[in-house]
Amino acid sequence: MPGTSRMPVSLRNSFTVKKGGSSSQLLSLNIDLFRNIVFFLFLLRWTRKGLLKLKGRGVFGTFADAYIAIRRNLYGLFLRAPGVRSQVQKQVSEAIMKLQSKLVPSGPGVVRYLNLPKEGWSEETVMKELGTLAQMDHTRWEDGFVSGAVYHGGDSLMMIQTEAFGKFTVANPIHPDVFPGVRKMEAEIVSMVLALFNAPSGAAGVTTSGGTESILMACLSARQKAYSERGVTEPEMILPETGHTAFRKAGSYFGIKVHLVACPAPNYQVDIRSVSRLINSNTVLLVGSAPNFPHGIIDDITALSKLAVKRRIPLHVDCCLGSFLVPFLEKAGFETELFDFRLKGVTSISCDTHKYGFAPKGNSTVLYRDTTLRSYQYFISPDWSGGVYASPSIAGSRPGALIAGCWASLMSVGEAGYIEACSSIVGATKKIISAIEENPGLNNDLEVLGHPLVSVVAFNSKTLDIYDIADAMSAKGWHLNSLQSPPAIHVAVTLPIVKVWEKLVSDLEAVVEGEKEKERVRIVEGKGAKGKSLGDSAALYGVAGSLPNKSVVVELASGFLDTLYKA
């Protein structure tokens, strides 16, 4: 075309190649840049995690944790090795079969009901079978031979609870308009327990199915609060190693990393300096016990409260076991410590009304300093096709009969009754402690852990295998609790035990003497003082419990749970 210069074909082709090459190089650079950014963020993330680990555990603690993890994994590989695995499985299967023979009735006289009867039974037949089931061979909790487990308030109270059950058998608090009486009772239960723990104006709470659900809800509330107010997406909580295992369950359920803090001898309280070191920007909750389950020790809640206020982190006090004892210690004339809402840092408390509140099993409460904290545990679904759905805790439908039984218990016993019960239970506990510490037949061999103030006393042995003592006490009909880390036994005193605490001490004295005699015989026979422990407690805690990898214990526990559903 006249007046228009044209680029030679060779130059146009060259330009196109260069242009295409430039785009390819730019794309390659962008990919490399993206990879570098991802690698940098990955490196930054794990460097930060490493620094937080060093800050929280220190150099020696970090190396110790690494050593334990490596040892655990290596031992796990060993347990899965050919030959070893088959032997382990054989022993686990034998232990589970032994367990099943104890828990699952068998024999020609045992009748199993695996399908619905073709025709419904008569009332007389049903009541007769219920009577048979109630009389199945069991540890006699009625005679006071069971540690904890059954928090019995007396036969007259049980009759009142049964009457309350009957009046509200079909009641469900999810329908407050249908069952207004249940709604009223539940609100009053929460109010009474809040007052017991010196809650401030504006405090709130809910009832739950038990201590585990109360703890789960407190952890969920703390997680949701941190996410809503601080944007925390990798939540962590700091827990005494003696804290109830429900906190670990909450960590597993709700994706909260759990840091365990040592509770060293001689006081067995959580180490406050270690707690402080572990706090970081992801920390959503601090935890203390009043008292803890294993040793009956009340953590230094005052110090934890100061730390919580200083670092602006919620503090939960687990008072499920202390329940209606700890609040009455002072009025009953016993030593006590501050642990409740009078401490500014305490933001939530769990309290089991079905323990020393003597309510029917399936009752607990979780209390909050204000309504906002409570609202973080709510579940609300505004757009469900079935209508707007809202529930205060894990359950939807709940048994109104249990709420009625709880309300009836609190109203029947009253403050004076709870003070009297506290005096009896804690008084008996202190007598057991005194016997262990002062009785020449016990104090040379047994040692009380820490300084328990409430209803639990834990003790280990300086000279004997404590698990042999536990098994020997079981042979005498006692159902006590074996502990680990450190090996020990604990007794949670209840009203039934109050009546037989002297027999507990005398049987313990006889068992200790019996174990010492066994050692003397072995020495005379030239076999050495220590024999092979053969009892159930020794097998579970002394042998399997000492392994660096707990997979064997997990299999045993899983087998136990399976056994519970074996008809």
From TrEMBL:
Xref: SUPFAM superfamilies: PLP-dependent transferases
Entries under Pfam families matching the protein: Pyridoxal_deC
Pathway: Lipid metabolism; sphingolipid metabolism; Sphingolipid metabolism
Transferase recorded as keyword: yes
Cofactor(s) for this UniProt protein: pyridoxal 5'-phosphate
Family to which this protein belongs: Belongs to the group II decarboxylase family. Sphingosine-1-phosphate lyase subfamily.
A GO molecular-function descriptor: sphinganine-1-phosphate aldolase activity
EC number: 4.1.2.27
Record keywords: Endoplasmic reticulum, Lipid metabolism, Lyase, Membrane, Pyridoxal phosphate, Sphingolipid metabolism, Transferase, Transmembrane, Transmembrane helix
Domain of life: Eukaryota
Protein name listed in UniProt: sphinganine-1-phosphate aldolase
Cellular compartments annotated: Endoplasmic reticulum membrane
Membrane protein topology class: Single-pass membrane protein
Enzyme class: lyase
GO cellular component, one term: endoplasmic reticulum membrane
Any one GO BP annotation for this protein: sphingolipid catabolic process
Positions of post-translational N6-(pyridoxal phosphate)lysine modification: 355
